Amino acid sequence: MASWKDAPVVGGGSEQGQSAWEHAPIEQPAAQQDAGVGIGAGRSLLRGINDGLTFGFADEISSAASAALNPILGTGNDGDTWRERYDLNVEGERALDRQAREQNPAASALGGVTGGLLPMVATGGASLLPSAGKAAAGPLSRAASQAAAAPIAPSLKQAAGEGAAIGAGYGGLYGLGSAEGDLMERAPAAAEGAVLGAAVGAGVPAVLGAGRAAVGALRSPERSAVHQVERALERDGMTIDQFRRQADELQQRYPGAAMPADAGGENIQGLLERVAQTPGAGRSQVIPALTERQQAQPQRITEALQDLSKSERDSFSRAAEDLGRATGSQRSAYQAVEEAMAQRSRDAQPLYAKAYQEPVPWTHELEDLFKRPVMQEAYRAAERRAGNEGREFYGRFIDLKEDGTFTRQSVPSTGDLDFIKKTLDSKVGTLERAGDYSEARVIKGIRTKLIDMMDAASPTYRQARAAWAGPSQYIDAVDSGRTILSRNISAEELAANLGRLSPSELEGFRIGAVSAIVNKMGNDPAKMADVTKYLRSKEMRAKVAAMLPDDAARQRWSDLLDFEVGASTTAGRSLGNSATARRAAEMADADSIGGDLVLSALAGTPVGSLFSQFINKAGRSVRDSLRSGSDRTVADVLTQPGGLATAQEAAARAGQALPPPLLITGGAGAGTVQANTERSARPTINSLIPTVRQQLVAGVEPDISAIAKETGATQVAVRRALYLAKKEQEVTAANYQNQLQARNALNKAGLAQGDYLIARGTSGGWEINAKN
Fold this sequence. Notes:
The chain has helices at residues 30-33, 41-53, 58-73, 82-103, 105-122, 131-147, 154-178, 183-219, 221-235, 240-253, 266-277, 281-295, 297-308, 317-324, 330-355, 364-369, 373-389, 414-434, 437-457, 459-467, 471-481, 491-499, 503-522, 538-547, 551-575, 580-591, 593-602, 608-617, 620-639, 643-654, 661-678, 685-697, 704-711, 715-733, 739-749; strands spanning 398-400, 406-408, 756-760, 766-770. The protein has 772 residues and is mainly alpha-helical. The chain has five domains: 28-120; 123-220 and 659-678, no CATH class; 221-297 and 577-654, no CATH class; 359-457, no CATH class; 683-770, no CATH class. Strands 1-2 form a two-stranded antiparallel ribbon. It is rod-shaped. Residues 1-36, 124-154, 312-331, 578-585, 591-612 and 661-680 have low confidence and may be disordered.
């Protein structure tokens, strides 16, 4: 008796007229069915492009079109119905896709990526998802950004959320399109594609953002400048915070003069020198800044000396300020002295008026003093001097003979003796102008003894003289101050002399000293004179300190002079032609800054390896371009207050990971296409039915988890296969009156007609049997 195997095939077309791959299990490549058939790389590339461009629906789309056009154009496979032709076409297309991936994996993958990117390029980065998908991406991205625990910039978290939403859409569509079977069979693949796409889409912004941050760091002159400054500070043993604090303190103490570079050490100075000696924007900024500061140094020192040398009781402040702002000429000094003397005289007049009425006891010392010829000459001239001043001379306290003998007649007043003292002042001035300094010194000694007696007898006179000693002594003090730069008097001797001066005389000395220093600085012919050379020796430091009014002023002057010495050193080093060897070393060291900087900027980023290899292979032009762009910023950091903070802010912005929307959507799409293109095909539900069937026939309830693990299928697919296998048992156990009834039974059970044969059975009816 003939079995169903001997019966003619009545379903699914003629078996002899069909190729072997048409009846092959879906999971097996067509190449294994027909070893003589191959597919080229170009064709694999095109199939990959179509697959990526249509989210994996290329096989269904082309199969449906071919099935529809078959009755007219003869395209695709033949069949009685559109569904039969479509099923046969789909099986063939999928077999070719698998063959392309196995024979030309690179071309197939490249095609998938290209197909995924083409919509992004054509739309300027817009997502191809429906508008509803776009609307959903916003809330999803916001939720992702809020849920993110890592300290990522808000913009990057938002980008990651958007990328995850878009990637899920791409991956879900691709998984749905690339899977096989009906909607239920495709659902697991769609879900898997959505999960994979979301992961890739969320990761793409981080990778691309890191790449953009690396490129931004590479192109950021601020990032380069900050790195160079940090490296120099590290060699100087300073942190960047210490450098910033010291720079701020210097700016507060010396506003308008201090530069951040002054807060650094030898290596910071070397960096400034390197920028000043390298042609470019940095040099054109550093040189004018240092030149202007050095040219203003005499003015700063003059004003500082003028301010520090004033005591609280000085009455000549306004007049002295004129001198401090002048060129140091004799005219300016003379005006300052005249104004100061007039003011002093007015201030002391009430004290002198009171003191003149006080008597001075006649003593043997005073009597011996009047035996001196010069004292007798002054006594005779006193009456005439009083008349010239409009005052009454109450002298006649001695009876002076022509031979120089005298007898005391009364007790002299302080006012009478003051006329004699002034006459002695005039005598001293006349002798000094005549060059008779020896005689002038003797008369000064006599005058000093007279003054000491008057001070002892009249405290009021002593107080008045402290306020104003008189024009002669004041001018003497001014002239003495003008000798401060002379090497003929030591700092120790000067300090001792200043200790014997009255406040008004000390005031005159200061005016003369400042005048001499200003005059010396003003006469220096150098374009950028280092005027600290006149003041920075140990001896000159001590001389200036001796004339200052208190310790606070001395400390301020010492600090200022140290600052100005440093400023001159900086200018000389950066603008001069010395230290050639050191400068060459600085330049050579700068040549390596490009690679060091970029490797530092890219450290820890996903694309760090790629960029570091690129930089290491780059030539001198890359390094030179980077240094040229950063020199201007280095100049700002080292010469401008606040330059470091500005550079750090710009460097931080340049390193932010902010991928543009074009890269987010395109990257998400490309990533999901790439992932799904490279993913090996999972077993289909239909391919799982034979495995489940064998266990059912053996009377064993299939273990869904074990089958899924063994075959690599999802448990959902195994459950569906078990359901269909049980349906298969039902339809294959039945007997049908005709072929149509058998086909309807297969359709109702959800079984593919191509996997079964409908043949006449031994009982005369029709039976359904599985092909495998």
